[in-house]
Amino acid sequence: MKGKGLFTLSAVAFFAYLLAFDVPKVYGQAASAGALFGTVSDPSGAVVPNAQVTLTNTATQQTRTVTTNAAGFYSAEALLAGTYDVTIKAEGFKAFVAHEVRLDPGDRVPVSATLEVGTAVSEVTVQAAAVKVETSTGESGGVVGGNQVQELLHLVPADDPA
Fold first, then answer.
1. Residue 34 to residue 76: CA distance in whole angstroms
2. Which of 106, 89, 100 has its CA nearest to residue 56?
3. Which residues pair with 128 in a beta bridge?
4. I need a labelling partner for 91 at 20 to 30 A (CA). Which of 22, 50, 57, 150 fits?
5. What integer is the mean pLDDT of 54-80?
6. 84 has which bridge partners?
């Protein structure tokens, strides 16, 4: 019986070691990226496949280019949070540009476009920010600024030992 107790103690010590030293720690992981997506159509409502969508981070000037699929849909995943200019071009249509589209960490922001018939030299510019709508889950999120944190701290009652 003495051997069995020693084995149990060794097994417990081994698993305690694994938990303490070998298992990678996962602390609060915050999303630092998001996605821009949308559908590109023409004035009649027909989708525009093979449209070139260029996303430019206005702070870093880094660009990513994606192409719409047969359903006119595009999606650019794992984009760093920031402000983007979205340019959409297709043969036989005027270019569409949405300036200053804000992408917060963890957001999925829709930027859809209806392209106007025209030449590629013409350009339609939209200067409004896209509305953020979470349609895949019931999640709600946002960025909390320093002023908001200060306001919250003023709402917390102080402990009064008296």
1. 9
2. 100
3. none
4. 57
5. 97
6. 57, 101
Spatial distance between the Cα atoms of 126 and 44, rounded to a whole number of angstroms: 20
Closest CA to 103 of 86, 87, 115: 86
Q: Which amino acid is at 144?
A: V
Give how far Cα 53 sits from Cα of 20, 58, 69, 88, 150, Å. Answer: 48, 15, 11, 4, 40
Q: State in Å, rounded, how far the first CA of the chain is from the last one.
A: 60
Chain segment 123-144, per-residue pLDDT in tens: 566 655 555 555 566 555 556 5
Mean pLDDT score across all residues of the chain = 79
The pLDDT value recorded for residue 32 is 85
Using the structure block, give the residue that is written with the tokens 């569409």: 96
**The one-letter amino acid at 125:** T
Domains identified in the chain and CATH numbers = 33-126 (2.60.40.1120)
For residue range 42-52, what is the model confidence (pLDDT) as tens digits?
A: 999 999 999 99
Q: Which residue has the tokens 């209806």?
A: 114
The residue written with tokens 């919250």 in the block is 152
Report the amino acid identity of residue 153. Answer: L
Burial-class residue 12 by CB neighbours within 10 Å (0-12, 13-18, 19+): exposed
Q: What stretches of the chain show up as alpha helix (H) in DSSP?
A: 2-17, 146-155
